[in-house]
Amino acid sequence: MTGQDKLPPPTPTEARYIAVLRSPEFQDLRRRYRRWVIPVTIAALAWYVLYVLLAAYAPDFMGELLFGNINVGLVAGFLQFITTFAITSAYVRYADKTLDPRSAKIREEMEAEGLL
Amino acid sequence: MNTVLAAEQVGNTALNLAIFAGFVAITMIFVLRASRTNKSAADMYTAGAAFTGRQNGIAISGDYLSAASFLGIAGAIALTGYDGFLYSVGFLVAWVVALLLVAELLRNTGRFTMADVLAFRMRERPVRTAAATSTLVVSFFYLLAQMAGAGGLVALLMNITNRGGQSLVIAAVGALMIAYVLIGGMKGTTYVQIIKAILLIGGALVMTVWVLAKYGFNFSELLGAGAANGAALEPGVKYGVSDLAKLDFISLGLALVLGTAGLPHILMRFYTVPTAKEARKSVVWAIWLIGLFYLFTLVLGYGAAALVGPETITAAPGGANSAAPLLAYELGGTWLLGLISAIAFATILAVVAGLTITASASFAHDIYASVIHKGNAPAGSEVRVARISAIVVGIIAILGGIAANGQNIAFLVALAFAVAASANLPTILYSLFWKRFNTRGCLWSIYGGLTITVVLIFFSPAVSGAKTAMFPNQDWQWFPLANPGLVSIPASFLLGYLGTITSKEHLEYKAAEMEVRSLTGAGAEGKALEH
Question: In sequence order, what are the residues at sequence separation of 6 or more whose Cβ sits closer than 8 angstroms to the Cβ of residue B528?
Answer without folding.
Answer: B42, B111
